[in-house]
Design brief:
The protein has 121 residues and is of the alpha+beta class. The chain is built from 4 helices and 5 strands.
Amino acid sequence: MSLNLKVLYEDEELVVMKAPTDEELVELVYKYIRGKGRPVTWRELRQVFSGTAGEDRLRKALIRLRREGLVVELRGGRYATIDMPGVAEELRERKRRRTLREAASLEWRLHRGGRKGFQVN
């Protein structure tokens, strides 16, 4: 996938392009993930944007996309948009497991609450 960056200089052996601003990088990352049509890994994003943006800038772009609700992080360090196939189901399953884990933790604390020296807050 082409990143469509502005070409500053080009000859037979070399092409020099303008690096994207932070705003442009956020948009480029979002377009790349949407364009793939499937969840993409951190490794894949890092490979595609190597030479264009450093890892710190790429992480900041992903954090911003997640904060804005445009991208979600799935298991295994994969990033996807909410409307991709299977993403909503995985998020529901994650929420269900978290609820079960919290309930089990609460049950354990209540069970242990009767023992001396242990307080439930």
